[in-house]
Amino acid sequence: MSTHPFDLAVALQPAGDDLWRGHTSPAYANMVGPFGGVSAAQALSAVLRHPARLGDPVALTVNFASALADGPFDVVARPARTNRSTQHWVLDVRQDGQTVLTGTAFTALRRETWGRDEHAMPVVPPASEVAPATGPRRVEWVNRYEMRFIEGGIPDQWDGREQGASITRLWLRDAPPRPLDFASLAALSDVFFPRIWRRRALLVPIGTVSLTVYFHADAAGLARAGTGHLLGQAQAQAFRSGYFDQTAQLWSEAGELLATTHQVVYYKE
Amino acid sequence: MSTHPFDLAVALQPAGDDLWRGHTSPAYANMVGPFGGVSAAQALSAVLRHPARLGDPVALTVNFASALADGPFDVVARPARTNRSTQHWVLDVRQDGQTVLTGTAFTALRRETWGRDEHAMPVVPPASEVAPATGPRRVEWVNRYEMRFIEGGIPDQWDGREQGASITRLWLRDAPPRPLDFASLAALSDVFFPRIWRRRALLVPIGTVSLTVYFHADAAGLARAGTGHLLGQAQAQAFRSGYFDQTAQLWSEAGELLATTHQVVYYKE
What angle do CA B54, B58, B59 make, to 5 degrees? Predict the structure, then answer.
């Protein structure tokens, strides 16, 4: 059995019909509660372990209803509708009888069809030529990811000097490297630091409230990506009245668009 | 009481705790079952009518589990978690005891903060200078929307000549005009014709499986938009193994980004 911290974090024990039990991971601790990407991966992990699962993940949405407390949690993953080659899932993560995360997932048997990547990977230097991020790390989970910022890194100075755009491009992967799978791709979708910090160069309080991941890669595409770096790109479209959105892409080193992902984030001030 | 077809379509009758009853609308009929945008709006409509609702919609995700049959349906809209100024909803639309739509919504009390529209409205001619779409309409719901295509209209010829990009820009609004609200903005998020038809100039069978809407506008922003046209822009990022995504924006005539919206769509061949 793998002892990679990500595998330990998304491990779940069966606890009944459609029910699993997990435990928050100190390795992925955030400022308050765990890193949301791992919470999303834990919820998806219940779908992936379900004996009635049909096909692979195509869409996942999770909503962060409350910060998880350190400790055990229950995941309910219920197939709400099973069609011939598709399946719709309802997700509910609970602690002490209260919902802390709601969500839905969609899995499907995928077939070969005509296909194109319309959003081409931007031209960037290879990962080996981009320095890994160093410096102070405010939260533990950041140590679980290798990040090599190409453009739009974490501001050096929190001087409130507004930037014209919030775009960030970076090479990223699990640290230590781990073969990509659906759960880790879901978590990687949430690795981008908050767009408002980038745009404003101000450390305002934030919290993701809803995260959606569309998986373009199937199992073979994940295997091709392997333990290589992914190119991540993220940008906000609007900041308004306490909430902003983020839209992001994750490509394999070979330029295959593996996932597109969106989130909406609370901010203060 | 309004007799606008959209108001009639999203009308719901209370039928118990967290439970409403609605009816599919022939005015919004699609090829098979109703237009998905109206199904999304009907689900959101239950949240909007709920006596325990806190705040306005910020995020909505609906998953189309099965085509609705013409006739009545039940909507369950349950507040799964209520915080001080935010609320998480679980949605379930049922016909004959079977789930036909799953979903989640997030509502919040919004406050004035620093804000920016980062994705600026593209420079386009005003709606009055763009001709409304005419020609054959395969499905009834299309008659409920005014569409003025600026770029990337429905192909004239279904000759399978592949296009380099799937982008479409159009002015759109309800027909007849109707003051914008959260439900109609949700429906308008799904008006774009399938990106694969645009990219391939081929009428392949398609069906949206998951739709997410982020509402950047609050009630005051909707009131400012009023009955004016919205500028819509939509583009795919990847087409792969039977599914493609679409990412889209809706601006008011005055250039305010009202909503950003994403979906993943099944396609055959």
Answer: 115
Q: Give Dmax over CA atoms of chain A in angstroms.
A: 56
B42-54 average pLDDT score: 98
Q: Does B198 touch chain A (CB under 8 A)?
A: no
Helix (H, G, I), strand (E, B) or coil at A109: coil
What confidence tier does A137 reach under pLDDT thresholds 50, 70, 90?
Answer: confident
CB A218 within 8 A of CB A56: yes
Of A80, A111, A113, the CB nearest to B99: A80
**Cβ separation B102–A110 shorter than 8 A:** no
CA distance B175 to B142: 9
What separation in angstroms does the CA of A250 have from each of A51, B158, B234?
A: 29, 32, 20
Of B102, B106, B267, the CB nearest to A104: B102
Residue of A nearest to B121 (CA): A237
Q: Is the pLDDT of residue A123 over 80?
A: yes
Average pLDDT over residues B116-126: 98
User: Does A254 contact chain B (CB < 8 Å)?
Assistant: no
pLDDT digits (tens, 9 = 90+) for A56-105: 999 999 999 999 999 999 999 999 999 999 999 999 999 999 999 999 99
Asked if A39 has any chain B CB less than 8 Å from its own CB, the reply is no
Using the Cβ of A95 and the Cβ atoms of chain B, whether some distance falls under 8 Å is answered with no
Q: Does position A129 have pLDDT exceeding 80, yes or no? A: yes
Residue A1 pLDDT greater than 90, yes or no:
no
Candidate from B80, B106, B199 with C-beta closest to A209: B106
Compute the distance between CA of residue A37 and CA of residue A183 in angstroms, rounded to an integer: 9
Do the Cβ atoms of B37 and B191 come closer than 8 Å? yes
Measure the CA–CA gap between A164 and A137, rounded to whole angstroms. Answer: 26
Q: Helical H runs in chain A?
A: 5-10, 36-49, 182-188, 195-200, 219-225
Q: Cβ distance A222 to A237 under 8 Å?
A: no
Question: Within the 107-146 window of chain A, which residues sit less than 8 Å (CB to CB) from chain B?
Answer: 108, 110-119
Token pair recorded at residue A147: 């990040």
Chain segment B210-242, per-residue pLDDT in tens: 999 999 999 999 999 999 999 999 999 999 999
Domains observed in chain A: 5-109+127-267 (2.40.160.210)
Q: How does pLDDT run across B241-258, given as a tens digit for each residue?
A: 999 999 999 999 999 999
Tell me, yes or no, if B210 comes closer than 8 A to chain A by beta carbon: yes
Shortest alpha-carbon distance between residue B84 and chain A (Å): 11
Task: State residue A123 phi and psi, 5-degree precision.
Answer: -80, 115
Q: pTM score, two decimals?
A: 0.98
CB B60, CB B40: distance < 8 Å: yes
3-state class (DSSP) for residue A188: helix
Average pLDDT, chain A: 97
Is B90 in Cβ contact with A216 (below 8 Å)?
A: no
